[in-house]
Specification:
heterodimer; A: mainly beta; OB fold (Dihydrolipoamide Acetyltransferase, E2P); about 45% strand; B: alpha+beta; 34 strands; globular
């Protein structure tokens, strides 16, 4: 139910580049232009009393970056304790923020023809965070609305 | 005069920059003569220079620029089109202006040349109708070139060395190759003079060359980088200790030194001397002295003391206010002074100096001092203190009265001070930047105000503590002392009605446990208890932490917007090991821990505060009643504000009523419900807030209506007090929200029963809403309409309640945290008892959308829609719901 966002993504005729990553068994992508950098796991300072989605603060070369747990935001079960998350640092109006994801994928090019609005059957929590779905040959790429993730 | 010089230098730097821009602008303007914006910009530049030099007393410059301005204004208004000749003339003017500015910089004066020819020509052109005739133009041009040469000589002689401008001069010359190139003798001699001067002061650069303007953001990013460098340096130094290699050790030592120096220098770039603020005071003092008929001498010491730029900005107004106060109230008129055996001329001393990493600023006068007895009378008269209280106050406490809001001792209100918005604002502003203000006074001898402020806001000294395995920094400004309670020690923590306190030198110190506020697991190192005594507002409280590790200078970094709402953090910092630590906000902690409001029970507030984090933008009415200074009610429920004369109030059946709009309006003195006196029993007039519920109205009597504000309101805690729904921060102050239900029920017993009598079995509503504020409001609405309401905060909670009981309606916020509202409805209906449970979606104002699964979705603050929907969804029991779905 996000007509403006969906048309933003679909309306543009040329292909876009997406930085991709895995969270659980879901394959996500964010517009590569939004991504500042990708980092291995960083030491994190938890913020008591903050929303549970906020995993903590990391020191990114002197800049304090808030890290979001994408799993928690999507209502997925927590990641197993033997795996450390990766940081996808994206630019936002509120400075850089980091999305904690399971695995980093490639930067891929997608064509708008393969775009479709999110199907109504997927949960509302997840659907709100998506612009839509790109039907790749072998799997589906979920286009993540990064700015929505940050609204908790 | 030093200050004058300062202003002139600033004027010169600014003008030089603007004039360089002008050259470029004019050339561009020639290409596109109709560019309004460009013209306006040029006009503004000339106008600024004219204004400033008039103020500084440079009359030749003023006269020249004034005429240029006239011309430009015609161009701007479209009365005249720009011709190349006109451009030349204007550029020439710019050069003359540069010449004069150069002269001012070197000699302090404008020079002897009046530039009358140029002035006349500017005037002639301005007076002439549009389109100069050719001959006149040529004439003018010849003249212009002559003078341009003249100016060129001068301009060259001044060490402007600006390629732009000299090439401009060249292009002027090329326009008329026939013109004589003979420099005027006067200009030549002037040039010679300048040359001599230049060789005499070879090191002295042009003001514009010695300074550059740098974006503060760039400086900030430099600061950040240096901070990082310092961390890297620290790591290298640690590593060096384990190394034997002499070459490496040497190199890292050098790195150490350079880094330290670099850090100091980068810090310096943000520093400015306090002189910048002080420089306007001589004028202020002089003018004030004249208008009051006083003689005041201003002395300054330590004007070079440097402060961070942001602090300089912040202290400007408070300092000005204090200086004005001293002139107005402090220093006496000459007659009074002579009579008191003092010299007729009063003395005001400004002193600034560094002390212990802070800057002290003292403003002292040798005036009459502060009469504490008069302060006392004034405070009593204004009702700021009670008579019994006044008797107990010592001199110091009496002096402190001056900082109370609404206090002003001036007998008559002058245009400078005495409006009663004085010293409390000064104190607030100083404290906002982590400073403190102190007042000393001796009657008849004078007063001294001492301000302590941090050197910089960016770097503050802090105490590092640990709690629950994490480190936190506490700004030292708030720190009073550290107390350690050993296990065997006689004095231990005691409890008052569940609230822990500690006897500190005979006084009770309320305690706040950091791990409770932050909901962490305490990891105390041993049995002893560490209490950090902190000052929050007027109240001291003890913060109990697991351990105290160190003090450190920390760099304050702001938190992301998402975390700004959490009041216990002031920011974050990066510690020496590169890890992030949170900086605690002492005021916020005190509030969250309940140390500021004595009525709140300790445990409850810390739990509640973490739950009620939803933000709702709301219009609320603020009012005062009895001993409660700040009460609030949602404006949406207020019908009108009324004032009733005392004699119109009648009694009926033991209740106060008043005839209002042809009906009888019951009045409910608020103090009947919440206690604490007040409620206008004694006044001639009653202030009433008229609330309406359907077609009923009730007037709630309060003492005074304060304000109406609209902002995001965070409910800090629910209250168990009668008549109070909870506490929130509104307009930066703690405010109590009245519980309208109990207030109204108190005045009109059948207020809420009326509805429930009609329906024998009240419908049961499960209200799921994370925000306590919205929950309380809707519960009141629904109960007022006769429903039985059970509350749940989130989905889990709601589901377990649904399992335990039967409900007729699920009213659920659409902004539930995961799994979310839609999932809740789905799961609720999966329970066999509630398979056909109607669901009402409650959206935040402005974001109402339909969500599948819900029978209806509406704005949660739209009371009538809510009640209508609830009635429709529950009315003919399940049939309607079934059809709707």
């Amino acid at each position: 139910m996000n007509p403006t966002a969906a048309s933003d993504a679909a309306g543009e005729a040329r292909s876009r580049q997406y930085a991709t990553f895995m969270v659980g068994d879901l394959y996500f992508g964010v517009d590569v232009l939004q991504v500042q950098e990708v980092l291995r796991y960083q030491q994190m300072t938890p913020v008591p009393c903050a929303d549970r989605v906020i995993e903590g603060l990391i020191n990114l070369r002197g800049q304090i970056v808030t890290a979001f747990d994408v799993r928690r935001r999507l209502g997925l079960p927590p990641r197993s304790s033997d795996r450390t998350p990766m940081n996808v640092v994206i630019r936002s109006d509120d400075g850089a923020v980091s999305l904690l994801v399971d695995e980093i994928g490639d930067v891929i090019e997608v064509h708008p023809d393969t775009f479709e609005d999110p199907p109504p059957t997927i949960g509302r929590a997840a659907r709100d965070l998506l612009y839509g779905v790109y039907k790749l040959e072998d799997r589906l790429l979920l286009a993540l609305a990064a700015d929505k993730i940050l609204k908790v | 005069m030093d200050e004058q010089q300062e202003i002139v230098t600033e004027f010169l730097i600014e003008s030089a920059e603007n004039l360089n821009q002008l050259d470029q602008d004019f050339v561009e303007l020639e290409q596109s003569p109709d560019d309004r914006e460009l013209l306006s910009s040029i006009f503004r530049t000339i106008h600024t220079i004219k204004g400033t030099c008039g103020f500084l007393g440079f009359h030749t410059l003023e006269a020249v620029t004034h005429r240029a301005e006239n011309l430009l204004s015609q161009l701007r208004e479209g009365e005249r089109r720009l011709t190349p000749e006109l451009t030349t003339l204007l550029l020439e003017t710019v050069d003359v202006v540069k010449g004069i500015l150069g002269s001012i910089e070197k000699t302090g004066g404008e020079g002897d040349d009046q530039y009358s020819a140029l002035r006349e020509r500017l005037e002639a052109v301005a007076d002439a109708p549009d389109g100069l005739d050719a001959a006149e133009a040529e004439d003018d041009l010849d003249e212009a070139v002559e003078e341009a040469d003249d100016v060129e000589a001068e301009a060259d002689s001044i060490a402007t060395a600006e390629d732009d401008s000299s090439s401009e001069d060249d292009s002027v010359v090329e326009l008329t190759p026939a013109a004589a190139r003979k420099p005027a003798p006067q200009a030549a001699s002037a040039a010679q003079e300048h040359d001599e001067e230049r060789s005499a002061h070879p090191h002295r650069l042009h003001a514009a060359d010695a300074n550059i303007r740098v974006d503060v953001d760039l400086l900030d990013s430099l600061m950040n980088l240096v901070g990082e460098l310092v961390l890297a340096r620290n790591q290298i130094l640690q590593y060096t200790d384990t190394q034997e290699d002499a070459g490496f050790t040497g190199a890292s030592q050098r790195l150490n030194l350079i880094t330290t120096e670099l850090q100091a220098n980068v810090m310096k770039t943000r520093m400015q001397p306090i002189r910048i603020v002080w420089s306007k005071f001589p004028r202020v003092v002089r003018d004030l002295g004249q208008s009051f008929g006083k003689q005041i001498e201003l002395a300054m010491e330590g004007a070079d003391t440097e402060l961070d730029k942001t602090i300089i900005e912040a202290i400007k107004d408070p300092l000005t206010h204090i200086v004005r106060n001293s002139c107005d109230h402090g220093i006496e008129s000459p007659e009074v002074r002579v009579a008191a055996g003092k010299p007729p001329r009063g003395r005001l001393l400004l002193r600034a100096y560094h002390e212990g990493g802070q800057v002290n600023i003292e403003i002292s006068d040798d005036g009459g001092g502060i009469d504490t007895q008069r302060l006392k009378q004034k405070a009593l008269q204004k009702g700021l203190i009670q008579p019994e209280q006044a008797e107990r106050m010592n001199e110091r406490e009496l002096l402190e009265l001056i900082f109370l809001p609404g206090f002003s001792t001036a007998a008559k209100i002058t245009n400078v001070s005495g409006r009663g918005v004085g010293m409390d604002v000064v104190r607030t502003n100083i404290e906002k930047i982590g400073g403190s203000i102190d007042l000393h006074s001796r009657l008849g001898e004078g007063a001294t105000i001492k301000i302590k402020i941090p050197l910089t806001l960016a770097i503050i000294p802090a105490l590092v503590v640990t709690c629950g395995g994490e480190r936190f920094a506490i700004p030292q400004v708030n720190l009073l002392e550290l107390v350690r309670v050993e296990p065997g020690q006689e004095q231990q923590i005691e409890q008052i009605h569940g609230s822990p306190v500690f006897r500190l030198r005979g006084k009770l110190l309320p305690l706040v446990f950091l791990h409770e506020v932050l909901q962490l697991e305490p990891q105390a190192e041993d049995e002893s208890v560490n209490i950090i005594v902190l000052q929050a507002d007027e109240q001291a409280f003890g913060l109990v932490v697991d351990g105290v590790s160190d003090t450190a200078e920390i760099v304050v970094k702001p938190l992301s917007k998402l975390l700004k709402g959490i009041s216990c953090y002031a920011g974050a910092t990066i510690m020496g090991d590169g890890k992030v630590a949170l900086i605690l906000d002492v005021m916020g902690l005190a509030q969250m821990g309940g140390a500021l409001t004595e009525t709140r029970s300790h445990g409850r507030s810390s739990v509640e505060s973490s739950q009620d984090t939803a933000l709702d933008k709301q219009a609320v009415l603020l009012f005062r009643c009895g001993d409660r200074d700040r009460l609030a009610a949602p404006l949406a429920l207020v019908d009108r504000l009324e004032e009733f004369p005392r004699d119109r109030v009648e009694r009926s059946g033991g209740r106060l009523v008043v005839q209002y709009r042809n009906r009888i309006l019951p009045l409910a003195p608020l103090s009947d419900t919440i206690g604490g006196g007040g409620g206008g029993y004694d006044d001639d007039k009653l202030q009433a807030v008229v609330f309406s519920y359907g077609d009923r109205r009730v007037g709630v009597v309060v003492d005074e209506i304060l304000d109406i504000v609209e902002e995001q309101i965070r409910v800090r805690s629910a209250s168990s007090e009668r008549g109070i729904q909870g506490t929130a921060v509104v307009g930066g102050k703690v405010t109590e929200f009245i519980d309208l239900r109990s207030v109204l029920a108190g005045c009109d017993e059948d207020w809420f029963d009326g509805r429930s009598e009609e329906t024998s079995q009240p419908a049961r509503v499960l209200l799921v809403e994370p925000s306590a504020f919205a929950r309380g409001l809707m519960r009141g609405d629904l109960e007022g309409a006769g429903y039985r309401v059970v509350e749940a905060i989130q989905a889990e909670d709601a589901l377990s309640r649904l399992r335990r009981g039967e409900y007729d309606l699920l009213a659920c916020s659409l902004d539930l945290p995961a799994p979310g509202a839609a999932a809740l409805v789905e799961r609720a209906r999966a329970q066999s008892d509630h398979a056909r449970l109607p669901a009402l979606g409650l959206a935040n104002p402005g974001s109402t959308t339909h969500v599948p699964g819900f029978d209806r979705c509406l704005d949660k603050f739209d009371r009538s829609a809510l009640l209508r929907a609830a009635e429709e969804l529950t009315a003919p029991a399940s049939e309607a719901a079934g059809v709707l779905r």
